[in-house]
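Worked example 3 (structure in, sequence out).
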């Protein structure tokens, strides 16, 4: 599934939704030409997630993008968190994804 949105820089970006081998939601960000920019999700076998939820990788290369993506209201926090390595990552969901 593809979801187009416009970030603060005025450029169109595309969220691509897929599934990891364990069935969890995999979320990728691509530019308007379809080139990959970031993997926004993390696969974790020991965490149970609803179909539209994912672990939001909001650190490292995604640090600058994370708040901007939350501001689009496509990605929404659930107020649940999980520790991945040494990072506290929010569990988020995609609005309009069933």
């Amino acid at each position: 599934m593809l979801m187009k949105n416009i970030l603060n820089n005025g450029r169109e970006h595309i969220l691509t939704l897929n599934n990891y081998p364990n069935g969890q939601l995999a979320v990728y960000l691509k530019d308007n030409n379809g080139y990959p920019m970031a993997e926004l999700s993390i696969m974790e076998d020991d965490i149970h997630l609803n179909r539209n939820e994912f672990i939001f990788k909001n650190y490292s290369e995604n640090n600058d993008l994370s708040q901007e993506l939350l501001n689009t209201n496509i990605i929404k926090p659930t107020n649940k968190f999980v520790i991945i390595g040494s990072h506290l990552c929010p569990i988020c969901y995609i609005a309009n994804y069933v």
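Notes: Helices lie at 63-71. The chain is about 10% helix and 50% strand.
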